[in-house]
Design goal:
GO terms for molecular function: aspartate-semialdehyde dehydrogenase activity. Its EC number is 1.2.1.11. The protein is of the alpha/beta class. It contains eight helices and 13 strands. The chain has a seven-stranded mixed sheet with strand order 3-4-2-1-5-6-7, sandwiched between helices. It is globular. The model has no long low-confidence stretch (mean pLDDT about 95). The protein binds 3-amino-D-alanine (2RA).
Length: about 325
Amino acid sequence: KKVNLGIVGATGLVGRNLLKILEERNFPVDNLYLFASSKSKGEKIMFKGEDYIVEELNEDSFNRPIDLALFSAGGAISKTYAPIAKEKGLVVIDNSSTWRMEPWVPLIVPEVNPKDILNHEGIISNPNCSTIQSVIPLKPLEEAYGISRIIFSTYQSVSGSGLGGLEDLEKGKDCPYFKKYPHPISYNIIPHIDDFLDNGYTKEEMKMINETKKILNNPSIKITATTARVPVKYGHCVSANIELKNTFNIEDIFTLFNKSEGIDVLDDPKNNVYPMPILAEGKDKVYIGRIRRDFSVENGLNIWIVGDNIRKGAATNTVQIAELFIKYF
Ligand code: 2RA
């Protein structure tokens, strides 16, 4: 069945990748409508050999036969326009953090919790990129052993901040002004992603904590996180220290990951084989390595998780949710 599709934020980094991945996966698009801010109005974007004109988003944008609207235009746009689209009977798949923690909004990683899409009420949220790549190996661990605690440390590329992040990386150390960061990011690491909260955490850290519990449907898991920006263009890395509830053999962990959907195990330290951003860039798999027991606690496990934050972390996951939507509705 063909789908009338709207893309909100079509000219952004994720928006452009959404179109690329819709083409790659031959998603059944009937009519396509592209929306962005006034500064992009009139831009031409090619899709499946045809030119499409970008329209300025406004409250009348959804007064046409659109079935599904994919949003990647920031939280403020989602807050205003997702409800308008929903009222007009469209289904919204939103990349922003705005709706993720609403109890009536499914937060979906198709390899992890596909059935949660069944009770959507018009808005479905795409999780944060570093959360998506983390829950993919955590799900089989939760199912097989139960998880009691997770410590996340992340190393997130500048493309997570969009086109402005990529520009800031090129500005070097002495530039007086940066679009996305409070300090130079080249030759540096900034332990600050999104805004700081009163509890000393950043919103990005609280996203990882809260979204992981929601997607794994287990609010009792104890989680802490430290998220940092690193001078890499594409590909987020996550170190996860995990305390399992039950005992395990490390060989069984390798077997479990090797048979889990969406995962490629790259783990042969003697031959310098482990996941790195340069291996994950442009791919949709989540790469797991440095798998080893944490001898400092009972049932402790360390893993290193790398994924392309723009593809599987945003655009591909969004398209996979759209494919799930067609499958179920
Ligand atoms: C970041 N995860 O990396 C956030 C949003 N993409 O900036």
